[in-house]
């Protein structure tokens, strides 16, 4: 193994889930740690050229990996990969669950894996924020939950991808991500609605958002979605349907903590309407189109 892998404690790193987020993260890990092991349903010569070693399946990857980052949509996809052979190895294995998922669901999965493998397989939840731009730039915010020892190793492994921080025991990362997504959903909902109000009042949208972006309305979301909001382009990047999934996880947290949320139910209703209208696979900036096309008499938020 390359000496470049030393900072990760000599751990052999694997990545499964090479989509818009996982692929650039794998690239950062390969460049920083000397190599990374991957598996995918199609060849990835682009990643191999950057130092990745591609394996035929999850079982082959499990035979060599000590730490595996799972950048998959949710726990059902994680379960599928486990069933396809990720547990086939005999060496201790640390799974980093990068998907945004239910905190109770992650804890239940970890308890089951601990029981079924006699403690050989351990779990850290490590959802990320920053979108595809952050994944490419290596500036993601990485929210971790797990034991101090496991999170210390996870932080060393994931450092090339952004800023990993342990927030508490297993599940804490998912709670933090639910909080993050509550803010994201509220912000993009407000931006979409405000855009329609301004447009129908005859205000030049580009001029308005340039101006308001210098005040308290400024946000990273406005910065990255301003052009989409102004032009009405909601070609997918961060899809709206995933915000709905994440808001449901937030509702789980609210119920578990006895929190009588006021904003969360309204956002759940809005994003459920967006998905029901067939717009769930559009970019989250589809909130502009959703409000513009919403008919009088539609269910009030």
Automatic annotation (TrEMBL):
<dbReference type="InterPro" id="IPR015815">
    <property type="entry name" value="HIBADH-related"/>
</dbReference>
<feature type="domain" description="6-phosphogluconate dehydrogenase NADP-binding">
    <location>
        <begin position="12"/>
        <end position="163"/>
    </location>
</feature>
<dbReference type="Pfam" id="PF03446">
    <property type="entry name" value="NAD_binding_2"/>
</dbReference>
<dbReference type="GO" id="GO:0016054">
    <property type="term" value="P:organic acid catabolic process"/>
</dbReference>
<dbReference type="InterPro" id="IPR013328">
    <property type="entry name" value="6PGD_dom2"/>
</dbReference>
<dbReference type="InterPro" id="IPR036291">
    <property type="entry name" value="NAD(P)-bd_dom_sf"/>
</dbReference>
<keyword id="KW-0560">Oxidoreductase</keyword>
<dbReference type="GO" id="GO:0016491">
    <property type="term" value="F:oxidoreductase activity"/>
</dbReference>
<dbReference type="InterPro" id="IPR006115">
    <property type="entry name" value="6PGDH_NADP-bd"/>
</dbReference>
<protein>
    <submittedName>
        <fullName>NAD(P)-dependent oxidoreductase</fullName>
    </submittedName>
</protein>
<dbReference type="GO" id="GO:0050661">
    <property type="term" value="F:NADP binding"/>
</dbReference>
<dbReference type="Pfam" id="PF14833">
    <property type="entry name" value="NAD_binding_11"/>
</dbReference>
<feature type="domain" description="3-hydroxyisobutyrate dehydrogenase-like NAD-binding">
    <location>
        <begin position="171"/>
        <end position="285"/>
    </location>
</feature>
<dbReference type="InterPro" id="IPR002204">
    <property type="entry name" value="3-OH-isobutyrate_DH-rel_CS"/>
</dbReference>
<dbReference type="InterPro" id="IPR008927">
    <property type="entry name" value="6-PGluconate_DH-like_C_sf"/>
</dbReference>
<dbReference type="GO" id="GO:0051287">
    <property type="term" value="F:NAD binding"/>
</dbReference>
<dbReference type="InterPro" id="IPR029154">
    <property type="entry name" value="HIBADH-like_NADP-bd"/>
</dbReference>
<comment type="similarity">
    <text>Belongs to the HIBADH-related family.</text>
</comment>
<keyword id="KW-0520">NAD</keyword>
<feature type="active site">
    <location>
        <position position="177"/>
    </location>
</feature>
């Amino acid at each position: 193994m390359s000496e470049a892998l030393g900072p990760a404690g000599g751990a052999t790193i694997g990545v499964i889930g090479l989509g818009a987020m996982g692929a650039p993260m794998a690239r950062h890990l390969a460049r920083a740690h000397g190599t990374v092991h991957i598996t995918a349903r199609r060849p990835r010569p682009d990643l191999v050229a950057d130092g990745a070693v591609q394996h035929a399946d999850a079982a082959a990857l499990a035979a060599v990996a000590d730490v595996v980052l799972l950048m998959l949509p949710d726990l059902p996809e994680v379960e599928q990969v486990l069933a396809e052979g990720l547990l086939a190895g005999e060496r201790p294995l640390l799974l980093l669950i990068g998907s945004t998922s239910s905190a109770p669901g992650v804890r239940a999965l970890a308890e089951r894996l601990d029981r079924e493998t006699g403690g050989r397989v351990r779990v850290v939840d490590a959802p990320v924020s920053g979108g595809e731009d952050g994944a490419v730039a290596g500036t993601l915010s990485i929210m971790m939950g797990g034991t101090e020892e496991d999170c210390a190793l996870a932080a060393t492994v994931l450092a090339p991808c952004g800023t990993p921080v342990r927030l508490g025991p297993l599940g804490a990362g998912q709670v933090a991500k639910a909080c993050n997504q509550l803010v994201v959903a509220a912000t993009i909902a407000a931006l979409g609605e405000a855009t329609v109000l301004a447009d129908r009042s005859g205000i030049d949208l580009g001029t308005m958002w340039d101006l308001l972006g210098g005040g308290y309305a400024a946000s990273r979301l406005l910065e990255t979605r301003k052009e989409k909001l102004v032009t009405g382009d909601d070609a997918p990047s961060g899809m709206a349907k995933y915000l709905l999934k994440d808001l449901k996880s937030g509702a789980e947290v609210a119920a578990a903590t006895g929190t009588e949320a006021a904003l969360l139910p309204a956002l759940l209703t809005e994003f459920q309407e967006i998905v029901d209208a067939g717009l769930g696979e559009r970019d989250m900036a589809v909130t502009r189109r959703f409000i513009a096309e919403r008919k009088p008499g539609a269910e009030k938020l």
